[in-house]
Amino acid sequence: MALDTYADLVAAVGSWLNRADLADVVPQCVTLAEASVRRTLRVRTIGPQTFGTIDALTPTLTLPAECQEVRDLAIVDPFSFAIGIVSPAQLIDRRGKYQNANGVPMIAAVAGTQVRFSPTPDRAYVVNIAYFQKLPDLTAAAPTNWLLSSAPDVYLYGVLMHMAPYLMEDERIGVWSSAFNKALLELERQRDMDEYGAGPLTITSQVSF
After folding, report:
1. Which of 27, 73, 77, 164 could bond to 173 as cystine, CB 3.0-4.6 Å?
2. What is the rounded CA–CA span in Å between residue 80 and residue 82?
């Protein structure tokens, strides 16, 4: 059985539980599984890089709608330069270091859906944004998303984990929880392999601003 769409997932849950009367309950458990995933999993965007342009004298940039958390920021044009990410409070504290002058943005802070840079850019800069993706809700109207496409086992075991209490099969909670957590761990390991390669991870010091 394929497991590519929301309908496939609903059918698979019924098949695994040998029940045909759970269509009204499965959507609730899909929502609960997604809540569990969002609390534990962050997946870096893979594929084409996401770019944004900060204009001269404009210290803010709106993040992509699917951004859950900013991972890295770097200027890529007119030259390459990594931007330090700090808290909004630190941005205010450190702004005095630049004496509120315009120049090359050195640090940035995320506030809601925007990134604020300091110093205020003296010209236009193209910024590369690496971020963790939000998990879109999986529904009949939106029948697939990146998690179902890349790791359908996470969805299946997550839904089964939340179905067990409803079915009063408490002895199965541990089984499905273990399978769910294992699938999440494997997905995160694959993320690390895609990002860092198969070699050992080298930790480097970061410059303080």
Report:
1. 164
2. 7
Q: Both tokens of residue 83?
A: 């931007």
Residue linked to tokens 């860092």: 196
- Percentage of the chain exceeding pLDDT 70: 88
* Residue ranges of domains in the chain: 6-41+135-195, 50-132
d(CA 167, CA 53): 52
Distance separating alpha carbons of residues 12 and 42, to the nearest angstrom: 25
Please tell me which residue, 207 or 118, carries the higher pLDDT value: 118
CB 130 within 8 A of CB 68: no
Assess whether pLDDT exceeds 50 at residue 202: no
Q: Which two tokens stand for residue 106?
A: 């050195």
- The answer to whether 46 touches 66, Cβ cutoff 8 Å, is no
**pLDDT, position 203:** 35
Helix (H, G, I), strand (E, B) or coil at 63: coil
| Predicted local confidence at residue 114, as pLDDT | 95
Tell me, what's the pLDDT at 7?
Answer: 95
Beta strands in the chain (DSSP E): 50-54, 60-62, 67-77, 81-86, 107-111, 114-118, 125-133
- Is pLDDT above 90 for 171? yes
